[in-house]
Design brief:
heterodimer, A: alpha/beta, Rossmann fold, 6-stranded parallel β-sheet, 4-stranded parallel β-sheet, globular, B: alpha/beta, 9 helices
């Protein structure tokens, strides 16, 4: 008992050493900055101040979300109302990323997404679709709409499915809800294909954030509440990954069979305390 | 028997004593509302042999009564208790586990679950039920499964044919729920082993003493043979050229249609002693 306890302490104390070489921090949003719920949600204690402190440090800061129930502009405006000092240009979300892929590859999507994210696709040709893009469509995941996406895919010679994230579920005030991953898996199974995931944990998505900061993977630290998608995804890109014990965190995450975070911290404020303290040493 | 022997040289496939014949319905005895030519008469001949019969089918929409009405319209001599469907298999499993299901099946199938308690559900049963495959209902199923309710799938078909084209079957929704809850569904229909074993249960015979006749190489023949039965593939219904090569081991026999399968059984698989 004693040995494992002290081992855990050592692990927990060791992670801040890596921040000396860190030049940029990437923050997940929902579950790290705020908890979603009625009226846009509530900030997690200390996180508004933690973001401010990071911003006034010498570290670069970006935000990385799989949110696809709103345009990036509306989403950022919501966070600003909650008190966060965030600009649209600092936020990476799947919809703008998928739009740039569609344009680059001359693809015309059939969309199975939330109504509120549709404006992101305003400039995209959606006639005679040759691929399907799905996001967290929530109530738009009716049988009819899911079937329409299936019919587009099954009619294509080379079915192509883009999924904005691959989350299993998320928490809302009225309970747990199926996330886009369930529907991605449903369409994969129906059409015998593998979706291209845009958003976390896709390496390309993390890479675009690193490119924007102009730093190498080992110089970046990702902080998130989703062990597999935030922490595991970042680690696979060569970044360090911290898990916060807020949001969708569950104690069993710390005994996960395949993903071990570089560190576990109670919340964002604690993480920022430790980071800034070590940088001053 | 007045039929000319098909192939006298085909030596007895085995010395197993045949006690039961399982017969698929759609595609094997009939195609939609037409009987396979000669099938009624062949069934009558099979009934005179000392074997038990069971009619086994993957259905998620039609209750036994509907199936039986169609078969009787087509002049097949079949009793209701001889029919074993994937819905029956699901019902048996519910009774065995003593659970109360959230039933995501079409109204036309609910009859086969009559008498099963469904209030305050602690299990989820998924058939082909487009009307129930909306976000709200699937979330309800999702939360029950996360709370430990078993997920029972009537079958996992990817899609089915509708007048307006292909449409999503239950399989994709079952797969989505499996992913989100990190659990595995219990599939009760063909080609699952348990399906065939359940179908044989009240016949007092082992899989080695039974043969299955069907038009689906994977679900009928492959499934039966994996259970230890012999499988006969008929080239009617959904059969497509080359289907017999898609399973390993190959079918015990591939033949034109149900009457020919019956001939084979009568001439080669029955102990005439």
């Amino acid at each position: 008992m004693r040995r494992s306890a002290s081992g855990a302490v050592n692990m927990a104390e060791r992670w801040p050493e890596c921040v000396r070489s860190v030049k940029g921090v990437i923050l997940d949003m929902c579950g790290v900055l705020y908890d979603s719920g009625e009226g846009g949600g509530v900030p997690i204690q200390g996180s508004v101040e933690a973001v401010r402190r990071l911003k006034s440090s010498d570290l670069q800061l970006r935000f990385c979300t799989n949110e696809t129930q709103a345009t990036r502009e509306k989403f950022v405006a919501k966070l600003q109302r909650l008190g966060f000092d965030i600009d649209v240009g600092e936020v990476f979300s799947p919809a703008p990323a998928v739009v740039s892929i569609l344009k680059e590859r001359c693809l015309r999507p059939h969309l199975l997404v939330h109504d509120d994210v549709l404006p992101e696709f305003d400039g995209v040709d959606k006639s005679d679709p040759n691929c399907v893009v799905i996001g967290d469509a929530a109530d738009n995941f009716s049988y009819q709409n899911t079937n329409a996406a299936f019919q587009v895919l099954i009619s294509l010679d080379r079915p192509l499915l883009f999924s904005m994230g691959r989350g299993r579920y998320y928490k809302e005030t009225d309970g747990l809800k199926l996330d886009v991953g369930a529907y991605m898996k449903a369409l994969e199974y129906a059409c015998d294909l593998e979706a291209e995931v845009v958003g976390k944990p896709a390496p390309m998505f993390f890479q675009s954030v690193l490119n924007d900061m102009g730093i190498q993977p080992h110089e970046a630290l990702m902080i998130g509440d989703d062990l597999v998608n935030d922490v595991g995804g970042a680690q696979r890109c060569g970044m360090k990954g911290l898990q916060v014990r807020t949001g969708k965190y569950r104690p069993s995450d710390e005994r996960h069979p395949t993903v071990t975070a570089d560190g576990y911290v109670d919340n964002l404020a604690c993480a920022v305390d430790a980071i800034l303290k070590h940088r001053r040493v | 028997m007045q039929q000319a022997p098909i192939c006298q040289k085909q030596v007895m496939a085995s010395h197993r004593a045949l006690k039961a014949v399982l017969i698929d319905l759609s595609g094997t005895l009939h195609i939609e509302d037409a009987a396979v030519p000669g099938a009624q008469e062949a069934l009558a001949r099979l009934r005179r042999a000392p074997v038990a019969l069971k009619f086994v089918t993957n259905t998620t929409k039609e209750c036994k009564r509907t199936l039986l009405e169609r078969l009787r319209r087509l002049s097949f001599d079949i009793e209701e208790q001889e029919i074993f469907t994937s819905l029956t298999a699901a019902r048996n499993l519910l009774e065995q586990k003593e659970v109360r299901p959230l039933l995501l099946v079409e109204d036309s199938a609910r009859e086969d679950f009559a008498g099963i308690e469904t209030s305050d559900p602690n299990a989820v049963v998924i058939g082909l039920a487009p009307d129930h495959f909306n976000y709200e209902t699937l979330n309800k199923a999702f939360r029950l499964i996360l709370d430990g309710a078993p997920l029972i799938a009537i079958h996992k078909a990817r899609y089915y044919k509708r007048k307006d084209g292909l449409a999503l079957g239950p399989g994709p929704f079952v797969t989505g729920l499996e992913y989100s809850t990190d659990t595995q569904a219990t599939v009760v229909g063909k080609p699952e082993k348990t399906f065939f074993l359940e179908a044989l249960r009240d016949l007092n015979c082992s899989p080695e003493e039974a043969v299955m006749i069907g038009d689906d190489a994977r679900d009928d023949v492959g499934g039966a043979q994996n259970t230890g039965m012999l499988g006969i593939l008929v080239k009617t219904g959904k059969y497509r050229a080359g289907d017999e090569g898609k399973i390993n081991p190959p079918p015990h026999l591939t033949c034109e249609s149900f009457p020919e399968a019956v001939n084979h059984i009568l001439q080669h698989l029955l102990d005439t002693k």
